Amino acid sequence: MKKKILIDQIINTFKKKSIVVDGDKSLSIRFVLFSSLSQGKCSATNLLVSEDVKSAINIIKKLGIKIKLKNKKYEIFGKGLFGYKFQKNLILNAGNSGTTARLMLPLLNNSTDWIKITGDQSLKKRDMSRILKPLKLFGFKFKNNNEKLPLCIKGPKILKPISYTENLGSAQCKSAIMIAALKAKGKTKIKCLPSRNHSELMFNNLMKISTKIYKKNHYELIELNGLKEIKPFKYKIPGDISSASFFIVLTLLSNKSNLIIKDVNTNPSRIGIIKILNMMGSKIKFFNKKNYKGEEISDIYIESNRNLKGIKLNSKINSSAIDEFLLIFLVASISKGISIFDNLGELNKKESKRLDWGIKILRMIGIKVKKIHNDGVKIWGNPKLKLKSSYIIKNYLKDHRIFMVSTIAALTLGGKWSIHDADSFKTSFPNFLKILKSLGAKIK
Ligand code: S3P
Fold first, then answer.
1. Same domain, yes or no, for 275 and 411?
2. Are residues 217 and 270 in the same domain?
3. How far apart are CA 65 and CA 424, in angstroms?
C-alpha cells in the first residue's frame, strides 16, 4: 500500500476533456441500508464501491442479508422490516463512515441481545448523542460511556412514533429518525432545518413510503407512518457532486483549461459549492438536466478563471456545501479581497476537525487567516499566490477530503508537496488519482 504521494509540479492545461466521477456516497450508503429492509431483490448500477460503502455492505451481510455482484450490478436481497438475523455477541464496525454509523443504529431493533457498534479512530471521536437522543424516545436502549462509539444498542420490535425537532441541519440525524419511523406504529413527525433530502426522495420515489414534506418558516416538517411493506426497487446511482467538486476547483484554478463532468447529482440541496463559486465569479454551468426519481442529474461545464472575488457568505447556504468547505477556503485564498464564513461548528465534527485543518493549511501556504466567533473564519485572499516551498500534510486522521484538497492545492498552486496516508481517498472516491492522471497530473 502506498504511504504518501509527492507532487512537485502544477498540472498542464487540459481542454475538451470529459470525465465521470464515482457514484454518490450518500445515495450508495442509503441504497445498501434501505434495500436490506425491502421485501426482495433490489438492484443498483454505478454503486460507489468505496471504503465507506463497503462498511455498510459488510454490516448488512453480518445481519444475514445476501448481496451479489452481477455484471457491475449489485443485487441486495432484502428480508423485510423485521428480517435480520442477529448472531450472539454481534459486533458491527462502521469503519470511517459517520453516515453508516448513524443510519444503521435505527435498523438494530428487535434483537434480544446487545449489539456492539464500533468504528475507526476518527469515527470514535464523533458525536453520537444527536442520534441517541431521538432513538431513545423511539424506545431504543444504549450502553455507553460518553455518547461516542463504541456503544451497545438494543430496541423493541415495534417502536413508538415520535415528534422531534432537529436543530443541527444534519441529514444524518433526520435520516436516522426517518428510518426508525419505518418500524414505529403510527405517525412520526420531524421538524428539521434543511439538509440534503436524499432519504425523503428515496422513501417517496423508490420505496413508495408516502412521506409528507411541508415548509414552515425556515424549517421543514416531515411526516410518515410506519409498519408499511417496502417493495423491492432498482436504482442507478448518479455521480457525486462532492467528488466532482475537486475537479471543478482543479479546473477553475488551472491554466486555460476546461472540463465537462457527466451525470452528476445536482440535487439543489447539494449544490452550495456551485452557487458559492459562481457568486465569487466563476461561470459553472449545468446542462443536459434531467430528473431521475426526484434527483436532478446534470452534466457540468467549467472553465479556468482565477479572476475571482472574496465572499461574505450567508450561512443559510452552509448545509448545502457542508462537505466542500475545504475547497471553498482554497478558492477564497487566491480570490481578491476578504472572505468571511460563519456558523461552521459542524465542520469540526467531521472525519477530522476540518475548520481547524482548513485554517492550518491556509496558514501553511502563507495566507492570512483568522478564526472568528469560535466557529467561523476570515480569509485575506492573495490572487498573486505562487508557492515555492515544501509542504507536508500528515496526521490528519486519514480524512479523505483533506487528502484530496491538498492534492488539488499542490496541482494548482505550485510548491513541493508530500501528502501522507495516500490511500485515504478510497473512503469516498476510489478513482480520484486515476482521473487526475487521465487529465495529465504528475503524481509520484
Ligand atoms: C451526509 C450528511 C452530511 C455530510 C456527510 C453525508 C449524508 O452530514 O457531511 O458527508 O449522507 O446524510 P450531516 O448530516 O451530519 O451534516
1. yes
2. no
3. 28
Residue 238: DSSP 8-state: P
Q: How far is CA 349 from CA 53, 98, 127, 329, 375, in A?
A: 20, 10, 7, 17, 11
- Enumerate helices (H) and strands (E) in the chain, giving the number of each: 12, 22
**Do both 144 and 247 map to the same domain?**
no
Give the angle 179-185-186 at the CA atoms, nearest 5°. 95
The C-alpha atoms of residue 103 and residue 4 are separated, in whole angstroms, by: 32
Of the candidates 22, 323, 399, 421, the residue annotated as catalytic is: 323
Smallest CA-to-CA distance from 438 within 117, 17, 113 is with: 17
Nearest atom within ligand 1 for CA of residue 26: 11
- What single string gives the DSSP state of each residue in 39-58? SSEEEEES---SHHHHHHHH
Query: In sequence order, which residues have a C-beta less than 8 Å from that of residue 436 and are 6 or more positions away?
Result: 11, 250, 407, 411, 443
Three-class DSSP category at 95 = coil
Ligand 1 atom nearest to 319, measured from its CA? 16
- How many CB atoms sit inside 10 A of residue 197's CB? 22
CA of 203 to the centre of ligand 1 (A): 17
Domain that holds residue 320: 4-23+238-438
CATH number at residue 68: 3.65.10.10
Whether residue 443 is contained in a domain is answered as no
Asked if 364 and 410 touch (Cβ cutoff 8 Å), the reply is no
Residues 248 and 335 in one domain: yes
By most ligand atoms within 8 Å of CB, the mutation choice from 32, 170, 351 for ligand 1 is 170
- State pLDDT tens for residues 40-94: 999 999 999 999 999 999 999 999 999 999 888 999 999 999 999 999 999 999 9
| C-alpha cell belonging to residue 240 | 457525486
Annotated catalytic, 323?
A: yes
User: Whose alpha carbon is nearest atom 15 of ligand 1?
Assistant: 170
Q: If you write DSSP's letter for every residue of 7-41 in order, what string do you get?
A: E-SPPPP--SEEEEPPBPHHHHHHHHHHHTTSSSE
Do 205 and 264 have their domain in common? no
Report the domain count for the chain: 2
Q: With respect to residue 444, please indicate whether it lies within any of the assigned structural domains.
A: no
Convert the pLDDT of each residue in 302-337 to its tens digit.
999 999 999 999 999 999 999 999 999 999 999 999
Asked which of 177, 202, 228 is the last residue of a domain, the reply is 228
Q: How are strands ordered across the β-sheet holding 234-236?
A: 66-70, 73-77, 41-45, 234-236
Same domain, 281 and 193: no
Percent of the chain with pLDDT over 90: 98
The predicted structure's pLDDT at residue 2 = 58
